[in-house]
Amino acid sequence: MRVLLTGWPSFVHGEATAGDVLAMEAVYRTLRASGAECDVAWSPVLRPDGLTLERAEPSGYTHLVFACGPVHGEQVRYLHERYARCRRIAVGVSVVDPDEPAARGFDVILPRDAPGRPPRRDLAAYVPAASLPPVVGVVLSPGQGEYGARGRHDRIERELAGWLTSRECARVPLDTRLDSRDWRHATEPVELEAVLRRLDLVVTTRLHGLVLALKNGLPALAVDPIGGGAKVTAQARAWDWPAIVTTGRDDAPPYLDRAELNRWWDWCLSPEGGNAPSGKAPREPSLLEELARALDRLR
């Protein structure tokens, strides 16, 4: 028996969800435990180096297993056509219409939900929880026109995005902007801080991304999006915070050195970097103290 394991993450135009991938992993483990040889087909969009349906020759398999998601539509029907000589099994799937050709094409269907059948637990629940990667909040600054040609926000954001996708972590996009009309934004600062306190690290190009992270005892990897450094760099100095990446005024792209980013990433997630300076005594009187004295003088 040689099995090709497929699912919606196998299709170039399919949607790959975390649940789909976990369900396929659960099925893969079961197939291997049963002694079957098994390959997994992936969309080249999701896993560029993986086996694709186009490369998985039908003659190389005795069985095709389809895991998770609805058995419906043209792409599932394509599997029946391409792997017509294989025995075809669907497991952990939703059967919307048992008479639809995509469903009728399977020799066996073991559904999670189907008309007239009791529901079964989804297969994603059967993969043991692995050790978890760090949870990283990403707080990016929009363009700041006051810096003119020194502003490199768009280019640095693209470079950061490419680097972040290479790191194993759970990325949480955050915005310091408050908006009571949009549920995706915090309404009050304390709501944003409640999220920050549950993170392991913040990566930010915003001054307040840096400040609010350090205030809440969270390490921050700060990138100044202004050539030559500006307020983000100044704020890092005010906090004696070393994890700041800057670029020169005359630097040419690419602006960010991945080796430097990786070095500060590792430092921030180390015990030393994790000791963020929340509540640390300032080196000098705060601006609030100076304001109070200024008011006294102006009375």
Could you please describe the fold and organization of this structure?
This protein is of the alpha/beta class. 31% of the residues lie in helices and 16% in strands. The strands form two sheets. The protein has a five-stranded parallel beta sheet with strand order 2-1-3-4-5, covered by helices on one side. Helix 3 links the parallel strand 4 and strand 5. It is elongated. The protein starts with a strand and ends with a helix.
Blueprint (SSEs and pairs):
Layout: E1 2-6, H1 18-33, E2 37-40, E3 63-67, H2 74-82, E4 87-94, H3 101-104, E5 108-113, E6 135-139, H4 153-164, E7 170-174, H5 189-196, E8 201-204, H6 207-215, E9 220-223, H7 231-238, E10 244-245, H8 258-268, H9 271-274, H10 287-298
Parallel strand pairs: 1-2, 1-3, 3-4, 4-5, 6-7, 6-8, 8-9, 9-10
Summarize the structure.
This protein has helices at 18-33, 74-82, 101-104, 153-164, 189-196, 207-215, 231-238, 258-268, 271-274, 287-298; strands at residues 2-6, 37-40, 63-67, 87-94, 108-113, 135-139, 170-174, 201-204, 220-223, 244-245.
* Rg estimate, integer Å: 26 Å
Number of helices: 10
Across the major sheet, the strand order is: 2-1-3-4-5
Q: Structural class, please?
A: alpha/beta
> Which band does the percent of strand residues land in?
15-25%
Q: Indicate the low-confidence ranges by residue numbers.
A: none
